[in-house]
Every structure is written in structure tokens, then in C-alpha cells.
Amino acid sequence: MRVPRLGEKGDLRLVAQVPGRTASPAVTVTEGLTPLADVELRVGPAGVLAHDVRDGTGAALPARLTLFDAANHATDLVYATGGVDSFPVPPGTYTLVVTRGYHYTPWSGAVTVEANKTTEVKATLKRVVDTTGWMAFDGHVHSQPSPDSTVSLPSRYRAAAAEALEVIAHTEHEIILDSEPARQASGVAKWVRGVAGQEVTATLPEHTNIVGVTPDPTHRRGKPVKWHGLDLAQIYKAEKARGAGFIALNHPRK
After folding, report:
1. Which pTM value belongs to this model?
2. pLDDT tens digits, residue range 139-152?
3. How confident is the model at residue 37 (pLDDT cuts 50, 70, 90)?
């Protein structure tokens, strides 16, 4: 790789990282002496962890997979969509923890991933909480359309399914969006649904969430509620006029 000159003398510590490989040893380069310095960084060999998560009946199940190293540091977090899949892991010995919210028993075990090989793990999570007649719902979810989130919409659905959520409300800042295409692309459409909403980000008196509104396809941001210059009573009135089926006051104790 090429390291550009920074303009001042000093040392640069360079490390190369590639998913599924051990990071390269650190290389120190003295900067500011030459316009360019040639540096070679070598990453370690690759490994793969294949997983198959199912429920007590043998049906494929979305789940959260977390890998911990020998120091008990979480090194990887994967939201599995159910059934057989895999992801790259640096060779080594880990503790794998597989969970699905509070409704299922967790699974954990030691796994050793070898260089240039695929390690296979099968996990069974048994349902222990009967939620018949109830639905697991998160009424305040952010994703990439919000300026404070980098999580893509399909990834948000996969995370929700892995935590056994059944409905999520997309309360993005100042946008009301149609998330159905992303839900269909997520691979977990059978497990979780989405409803449109908005976080109405009034700086004063406080943020509110609305849920159950319909995005306006003629507006580039789905026609969010305008709050500038309104007091709380006026904001509530505007939210109801927009068709909100549910309104929540955020951060009431802040």
C-alpha cells in the first residue's frame, strides 16, 4: 500500500484488517522524511463459521450470534436469518452465544475455527415463554434514513427478527418512509412487520413519536409533521391532523 506524506515528521503505526482474517502485525513508518514510503502489511489466513439455528420443532429460526474471544471480548455480532448460513471469522478458539430475545433458551458452546476451513455449528433454541395473544413491539426504531443511524433498513429488520420482535415502528427523524421493499429484501419478512412513523424532532419543548401514519409518495420525505415555531399542544394537533394513531412524548424526564 502507499502511505501519503502528512507534512510533519513523526511515526505512523499501520495495521491492516480484513473480515475473517487475523490483523497484520503493526508496522511503524517514520513520516515526513520522503514523499512516499513503501509498506507491506500481511494479514493472517481466513476462517469460516457455518451455523444452523433451529427451534425445538426443527424449523429454521432467526437469531443473534455473538462470538467472544479468550479474554471474553465480543469480536463478532451476526444477525442470522434462519437456517444454514456462514460468516468469516479469524482462526482461533471462541465462545459462541446464540440467543433470540427473552422468549427462547440461549445456546452457548466453544468453537474452534481453523485456517482455510469451515467450522460447522448447529444450535437449537427452545421457546420457553408463551406469548399467545401478544406481539413483541418496538415503538422507537431508527435506521439509515435518520442522520443519527448508519444501520440499513434490511439490517434493522434482521436485527429485529433475531431479537424475536414481531412489529417495529420506523420513527426516523423528519421523514415518513415506506419500508416494505427493505422488509422484503431482508430475508426475514415472515417474522417481522413494520409500521410507518416519525420522530418529530422539536428542539423545544421535546421530541415526540407518531406511529400509524401513511407515507405521502408525492413528497420526497413522505410529508413529515412540521413542528417549527409550535408549542406542544400545537404539535399534538398537527400530529393528529397528519393521521397519527399513536403519539408518545420522548425523554419526559430529561
Report:
1. 0.87
2. 999 999 999 999 99
3. low
Cβ atoms of residues 89 and 96 within 8 Å: no
Q: Which helix (H) or strand (E) holds 72?
A: none
Calculate ∠ Cα 183-189-193, nearest 5°.
75
Write down the residue that cell numbers 473480515 correspond to: 19
Tell me which residue has cell 412489529.
Answer: 167
Long-range contacts of 247-251 (CB under 8 A, 24+ apart): 247/208, 247/209, 247/210, 247/211, 248/139, 248/140, 248/208, 248/209, 248/211, 249/206, 249/208, 250/140, 250/199, 250/206, 250/207, 250/208, 250/209, 251/206, 251/207
Q: To the nearest whole percent, how much of the chain has pLDDT over 70?
A: 93
Buried b (16+ CB within 10 A) or exposed e, 178-191: ebeebbeebbbbeb
User: Residue 175 in contact with residue 207, Cβ under 8 Å?
Assistant: no
Distance from C-alpha of 232 to C-alpha of 208, rounded to nearest angstrom: 9
Closest CA to 226 of 254, 200, 251: 200
CA distances from 117 to 48, 80, 122 (A): 6, 20, 17
Taking a C-beta distance cutoff of 8 angstroms, is the pair 209, 197 a contact? yes
Q: What is the pLDDT of residue 252?
A: 73
C-beta of residue 198 within 8 angstroms of C-beta of residue 224: yes
Residues 6+ apart with CB under 8 A from 12: 3, 6, 28, 29, 30, 31
pLDDT value at residue 27: 87
Q: Is the pLDDT of residue 36 over 70?
A: no
